[in-house]
Amino acid sequence: MTEKQQLDAIRQQIDAVDEEIQERINKRAALAQEVARIKLASGDDALFYRPEREADVLRTVKERNQGPLDGEEMARLFREVMSACLALEKPMSIAFLGPDGTFTQAAALKHFGHSVNTTPFNSIGDVFREIESGSCDYGVVPVENSTEGVISHTLDMFLNSPLVICGEVVLRIHHNLLSPPGYDWKQAEMVYSHQQSLGQCRHWLDQNLPHAERVPYPSNAEAARHLAETGKDVAIASSEAARIYQLDIATHNIEDEPGNTTRFLVIGKQQAAPSSKNKTSLLLSTKNEAGGLHRLLAPLAEQGISMSRIESRPSRRGVWDYVFFVDICGHIDDPEVSAALKILETEAGMCKVLGSYPEAVL
Amino acid sequence: MTEKQQLDAIRQQIDAVDEEIQERINKRAALAQEVARIKLASGDDALFYRPEREADVLRTVKERNQGPLDGEEMARLFREVMSACLALEKPMSIAFLGPDGTFTQAAALKHFGHSVNTTPFNSIGDVFREIESGSCDYGVVPVENSTEGVISHTLDMFLNSPLVICGEVVLRIHHNLLSPPGYDWKQAEMVYSHQQSLGQCRHWLDQNLPHAERVPYPSNAEAARHLAETGKDVAIASSEAARIYQLDIATHNIEDEPGNTTRFLVIGKQQAAPSSKNKTSLLLSTKNEAGGLHRLLAPLAEQGISMSRIESRPSRRGVWDYVFFVDICGHIDDPEVSAALKILETEAGMCKVLGSYPEAVL
Q: Residues of B with CB below 8 A from A73's CB?
């Protein structure tokens, strides 16, 4: 066979596969419509979006993936298919902590796919308010190890908000050294970035730019924008920011720890049902007395529930009181979680469930 | 059956369909790799991206689509599948006329899918230079009825560039009246937007904001940004710009003509092979003498070739000379186009083929 004949033969096979893919995507969409019809008939109309179901679908997709496309890219395509099927009913509107081009936007699109409308807001408080008022269906805000802003503010918002956590998104974060086009980055006298990003690249900066002053900025995107305006010095930010502000990437992946991730929360009005792997976030408070925290955590330990994270915050309600944000493995519908919560509700000064939601599908 | 049993039964069907979709997407990716292997073996390494092939795949997808997903959404999903398969070899880098959030970016992502890197540039000239230098693989620039900048500049660039047109993208354009949050748009004393957008909404503005001054801006995105800074008056721009600059959409779709579209060109170094429906763009020149243009177009008419567009521009090379940008139906490999070109090459002062490329898949 000539090269052309070989290629033509393969392309005919691709065409045949495409027809099968298309037929099945439409079959899937029709089945999704059937789900919606049944729910509408029973008045269950608000729950077309089921985070637990989507998480399980994506987990299955990644587990059974044989390649050659890698599991993450395949999950991305399935996210888009689900996003398109869901938009048949009504495209969702998603609020996120802006500006555009931040990791938070990337997290929102990773989680919901591109058949949704995403809207940036200036503050975490604004994101909460948009959802509370019903202007947006869901929101995405950074919560842990983020480079975009003050994250503890996200936790504080839950103190007074009726919203619940219905999902989490984990992004692998790479940091890049950005410089204005044509500028020799070794001449830089200043390195601009969010405090956390500066910290995450400390070792690299010590080695490569020991004399440059490290200047904290409210967000990496703003540091990049500053560079674009002044035309000198360097910033640590994403490749996305380099594109948006037309900066060169002087060096890729300068983070000291490979595998650096940032975690985001998906917030909304409805609690998610259990998926195959869940987390529950709790807000607990106790008197500031010896052994207080230890006693508080006893019910969890007794039920064999593992804790993935704890963070203490001043409650702002009393001089000596503290609140704790605690993430545990499991769903409030799990018997052991439910048993532990019953005890906590009587023993803790406050015990608020911020949400049970599917563990992030990386 | 209870509602839950019904839903569970449908979800099992969805899971089975998902497995079939996944298996076939990976089969497609493996076939695409096989195509790449054959091409590499024959030294044909630069041509992994075949615009004519992609256009034909998308046309077929839309033609055979039975729903419930509509043809455009299905084509979007296939664009992403092809984008992912192509990125298995090497993710392409696409330059576009920025800033971010313009229609041109939307056009680039519509055409290439999300498995590419897109980079904004400040001018059409910069986009051309990035591709000529090899920094980017392809570029996307507006050419017709755009709201983003001076379009004739795109055509002028071809006078001195070795790049060719290897595709076109057509976007349906909707205009929206944007206002700062909380501002009563009826109080506006100024309406900011690109001259063309102001023109395209003239009737609506006459009816609804007859006393507001219409102020032309270099782009709709910049008009929106201006509004975000001043906090008063209104702008005409896309819903994307409203999201980026956090403005309210006071009124949707205020364009006088529904079905308003903007056309973009995909530019690169390689000529596209024929797809099932093609266009060819020509640059022709003639002496400014009576009947000059008529004689110039005779070879096209004689070969029965239809013209989809003609635009005259001063050539800047001689006092009395004009150049014409002419779009015709067909590919330079078609016998009638090739015959007409042979005659044009001897009769026209200049006859440059700017590119033969697949007609846009809407």
A: 84, 87, 115
Tell me which residues of chain A, numbers 95 to 154, contact chain B at a CB-CB cutoff of 8 Å. 98-101, 114-115, 117-122
pLDDT attached to residue B281: 94
Q: Which of B22, B35, B81 faces A10 most closely, judged by CB atoms?
A: B35
Distance CA B362, CA B354 (A): 22
What residues does each domain of chain B span?
A: 3-87, 93-172+261-268, 176-251, 278-358
Q: What is the pLDDT of residues B45-87, one digit of tens each?
A: 556 788 899 999 999 999 999 989 999 899 999 999 999 998 8
Residues in CB range of A164: below 8 A, 6 or more apart: A267, A268, A269, A270, A271, A353, A354, A355
Q: Residue count of chain A, please give it.
A: 362
**B118 pLDDT exceeds 60?**
yes
Q: Give the model confidence (pLDDT) of A147-180 as tens digits.
A: 444 466 788 888 889 999 999 998 877 889 999 9
CA-nearest residue to A69 within chain B is B26
CATH of domain A3-87: 1.20.59.10
Q: Is B93-172+261-268 a domain of CATH 3.40.190.10?
A: yes
The structure tokens listed for A136 are 């947006």
> For an interface test with B, which of A3, A21, A38, A119 has the most B Cβ atoms less than 10 Å from its Cβ?
A21
Domain B176-251 has CATH 3.40.50.880: no
**Topology annotation, domain A278-358:** Alpha-Beta Plaits (3.30.70)
Print the SS3 string covering A303-318.
CCCCEEEEEEEECCCC
